Amino acid sequence: MKIYDFPTGPYPARVRIALAEKNLQSRVRFEMVDLYKGEHKKPAFIATKNYSGTLPVLELDDGTLIAECTAITEYLDALDGAPTLTGRTPREKGLIHMMSKRAELELLDAISVYFHHATPGLGPDVEIYQNAEWGLRQRDKAVRGMHYFDGVLRTQPFVAGEIFSMADITVIGGLIFAEIVKLPVPAECEALQAWYARMQERPSVKNRVTMSEPAT
């Protein structure tokens, strides 16, 4: 399998973490697509890899292309017939998918809009249109999202309950993006901060960037 991504990107981080959690690193080859050069928005990439012009993209051995982090994680998690990240029971699946979607809407995607609209983003060659007011509103939404997840994590060890899941990975992606745009987690969000410190000690999170580097 191939993965088209950018090593330090917050969305690629979600798939890289899932790969490591499932111990699938040896089954993939990484192809870097330079976000700052806008390679993901080039007509050739859009026509042949991902209509949405986003990363990451998983390409299977038969040429099938799967985009969107949730879809890729679903595929990887199901490969061995023993899903651990997307839910084993109907209840787990429902809760994990609900919380992962909330993490996208309230945190990760909100920070993405802030990045692309209210900061220099990927530069003038990529950021053709910007609406700073909208970006700042989404920044504030992301901070509210941090408070929401802090409340969740005050009552349970992981975002969707008692086990590490895709929902945790999505929140991790959001906090990685927050670090990139220098948007700090509020000091009063102590549960979220403590949880994130724990998550950063997981090998899948700690080694996500170096995963694609050649072995020495």
Mean pLDDT score, rounded? 97
Helix content range: 40-55%
- Uncertain ranges: none
List the strand order in the largest sheet.
2-1-3-4
Instruction: List the helices and strands in order.
Output: EHEHEEHHHHHH
Provide the β-strand percentage band.
5-15%
User: What overall geometry do the principal axes of the alpha carbons give?
Assistant: globular
Structure commentary:
It is a single chain. This protein is of the alpha+beta class. The protein has eight helices and four strands. It has helices spanning 10-21, 43-48, 69-78, 90-118, 132-153, 166-180, 190-199, 203-206; strands at residues 2-5, 29-32, 57-59, 65-67. The chain has a four-stranded mixed beta sheet with strand order 2-1-3-4, covered by helices on one side.
Briefly summarize what is shown.
The protein is built from eight helices and four strands.
